[in-house]
Amino acid sequence: MKLLKLLAQLAELNPQQLNVAGPRRTALRRLAQAGTAVLPAVLTVLPQPVVARDVPTVLDVLKLGLTLSQLENELYSRALGLSNADAFLGTAENKAAIQTMQLHEQQHIALFTRLIQNSGGTLDAVPRFDFTGSKNGTQATLFPDVFTNFDTFLKVAQLLEDAGVRAYKGQVEYIQYDNYLLETALRVHSTEARHSSHIRTMRRQRGATVKSWVSPSDTPLGAAGTIAATAYAGEESSVQYLANNNPVPFTDSLPINVATPPLSQAAILAKVAEAFDEPITAQAAGTILGQFIY
């Protein structure tokens, strides 16, 4: 991915150029009605090169964030609302963790709702969710025991949190010229990453072969071709780019091979793959979320 290039571009921008010329609510309303091709004109920043592709609007980005938050909030709410919730969650520590993550998702829902309304956008109806993955019994069930087996519940939570981390990162380029929205999205992204890490740690404590971050050594959540496999497609990448489009020479000149004995090139690249979360497009995120919406 070109995250390093994007960060370099952001570092070169004059902070004064990121200030909205008019009131924020007016700017948000204008942004919501257009794609990023018009962002420079609205926010008086340097122009972006024109790219022939479907470009999400700021409103699209906000609505994706809202749907992600609603989905995760509902997952945690249903677990906490079970008649046998204490037995299902197992320990007071597990329950407290799920309660904390649900609270965060409620805060994200309120945040994205306010931003959409301030932009002049219309809130969509809250989707109907089916966390078995069967779309209310219309297709094969992926996680039939999601609310009777805590390990399955944690698998679904990991899948959604990991996908959320990638989805937020994938939307950064479409809001990079608004410093408020950029900071907001990255703060939410950071919270989602902490959720993901904690869920993964909970799974590992229960015997799962999984690290606290996405790793090629994780036991896959699903077979090839499943929605779980789709959620992690591309995460094995070990190629990162500098601002000049040159790949970072991880195995050649960077002083990172300090192990004794030195790591092999394959071992270095495996660690590089772990160090960077790859973004996914809004379309890919929609496909993953759509597995649990009917």
Detailed description of the structure:
By secondary structure, the chain is mainly alpha-helical. The protein has one domain: Ferritin, core subunit, four-helix bundle (Ferritin). Helices cover 52% and strands 0% of the residues. Helix 4 (58-80) packs parallel to helix 11 (282-290). The protein is globular and about 55 Å long. The model is unreliable at 3-28 and 30-53 (pLDDT under 50). This is Ferritin-like domain-containing protein. Pfam families: Ferritin_2.
How does the SSE layout of this entry go?
Elements: H1 3-12, H2 24-32, H3 39-43, H4 58-80, H5 85-89, H6 92-118, H7 150-171, H8 179-205, H9 227-231, H10 265-275, H11 282-290
Organism: Hymenobacter gelipurpurascens
InterPro entries: Ferritin-like_SF (IPR009078)
Protein name: Ferritin-like domain-containing protein
From the structure above, extract its key features.
Ferritin-like_SF; 11 helices; Ferritin-like domain-containing protein; disordered N terminus; 294 residues; 0% strand; 52% helix; mainly alpha; Ferritin
> What's the CATH H-level homologous superfamily?
Ferritin, core subunit, four-helix bundle
CATH topology: Ferritin
Helical content (DSSP H or I, runs of 4+): 40-55%
**Helix/strand/pairing category:** mainly alpha
Domains, number: 1
Radius of gyration, in angstroms, nearest whole number: 20 Å
User: Total number of helical segments?
Assistant: 11
Which blocks of ≥5 consecutive residues have pLDDT under 50? Answer: 3-28, 30-53
What is the N-to-C succession of helices and strands?
HHHHHHHHHHH
Largest sheet: none
Beta-strand share of residues: under 5%
Protein name: Ferritin-like domain-containing protein
Organism: Hymenobacter gelipurpurascens
InterPro entries: Ferritin-like_SF
